[in-house]
Amino acid sequence: KHEGPLDLRLNPTKGISAAQRIADISLDELEGMLIENSDEPYAYEVAKAVIDSRRREKIETTTRLREIIEKALQFLPAKERKDEIKKCCARTFQALRIDVNSEFEVLDSFLEALPHILKPGGKAAILTFHSGEDRMVKKSFQYYAREGIYSDIAKDVIRPSAKECASNPRARSTKFRWAVRSDVQKYE
Q1: Rounded CA gap, 101 and 107, in Å?
Q2: Cβ-defined contacts of 75-84 (< 8 Å, 24+)
């Protein structure tokens, strides 16, 4: 929405920026990242446009990346183009943020350690903000429940109410899952 450096790191002193990541990534890798990290339906079109633009210039700002995405989606019907561009931009920036911060790797490490740090009978509650994260949490909880590590898990995801979303628009994509550590001490 605003002009700024294309960084996206949670800690700007560690790792590489999104601009640097774009400068070094291949077309196939960028397309895969967009699919895996944000379920982007126009992953190929966006990846190709980014790589083609990168050959002519460095992509260093948020607005320049948005302009590239807008141009890549000009083939869409005019009546749906504006909304699709907005969604595609959100998904593309999300995919890059997840990548430069290794968010899936961090979540995977946490989910693997969670049964070890919960006391017997302890409860874990996790909020996720997109489908990739939610899938990881759901599968982890189901796996450890089958193994007898969790005695109970949320059968269905819990979503915010319409009232909550109205007062907090950021809540609309949130999903809530929980698990209870078994009283059995077999997993130490």
Answers
A1: 11
A2: 75/45, 84/42
pLDDT of residue 41: 96
Let me know the angle formed at the C-alpha of 148 by 145 and 153, rounded to the nearest 5 degrees: 30
Q: What is the dihedral of CA 36, 24, 94, 7, to 10 degrees?
A: 160
The token duo for 94 is 């999300």
Q: What is the pLDDT of residues 14-56, one digit of tens each?
A: 999 999 999 999 999 999 999 999 999 999 999 999 999 999 9
Name the amino acid, one letter, at 31: E
Handedness of CA 70, 88, 49, 78 (dihedral sign): negative
> Containing H/E element for 178?
strand 175-181
The rounded distance, in Å, linking the Cα atoms of 55 and 76 is 24
Helix (H, G, I), strand (E, B) or coil at 125: strand
DSSP string across 55-101: HHS---BHHHHHHHHHHHTTTS-HHHHHHHHHHHHHHHHHHHHHHHT
* pLDDT score, position 130: 86
For residues 115 and 181, is the Cβ–Cβ distance under 8 A?
yes
Strands 175-181 and 123-128: antiparallel
